[in-house]
């Protein structure tokens, strides 16, 4: 089981499913919302239990970003055309046992850093 919480503790989530696709997103939306990068993994939406006041922001035609309206923690990302929901790796309780597998949207990364960990990069 994996569980996590926002900074203030108002929003909590948990899943018994095995998280997949642990990655770091470098897109401009994730950078703007998080202040740098956003690391996440995903599970089937029905396998993710969320409690507390989540506000969903429609960031694109298909994309929804879930955050805590009290402390502002960016916790979830969902494509409404898919059956999975991504959750913030930084919000998980340790130990997670997870390892990053890739970087995504690297063509959109900031010009102030380099990606040098050797993981696969998807433009």
TrEMBL record:
Gene3D superfamilies: glutathione-dependent formaldehyde- activating enzyme (gfa)
Domain CENP-V/GFA: 2-114
Cross-referenced SUPFAM superfamilies: Mss4-like
GO MF annotation terms: carbon-sulfur lyase activity; metal ion binding
Domain of life: Bacteria
Keywords: Lyase, Metal-binding, Zinc
Family matches, as InterPro entries: CENP-V/GFA (IPR006913), Mss4-like_sf (IPR011057)
Pfam family, one: GFA
Family label: Belongs to the Gfa family.
Name of the protein: GFA family protein
Organism expressing this protein natively: Antarcticimicrobium luteum
């Amino acid at each position: 089981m994996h569980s996590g919480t926002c900074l203030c503790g108002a929003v909590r989530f948990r899943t018994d499913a095995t998280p997949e696709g642990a990655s770091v997103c470098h897109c401009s939306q994730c950078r703007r919302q998080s202040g740098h990068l956003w690391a996440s993994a995903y599970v089937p939406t029905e396998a993710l239990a969320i409690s507390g006041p989540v506000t969903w922001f429609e960031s694109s035609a298909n994309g929804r970003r879930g955050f805590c309206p009290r402390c502002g923690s960016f916790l979830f990302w969902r494509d409404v055309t898919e059956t999975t929901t991504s959750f913030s790796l930084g919000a998980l309780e340790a130990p997670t046992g997870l390892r990053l597998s890739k970087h995504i949207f690297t063509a959109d990364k900031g010009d102030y850093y380099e990606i040098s960990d050797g993981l696969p990069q998807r433009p």
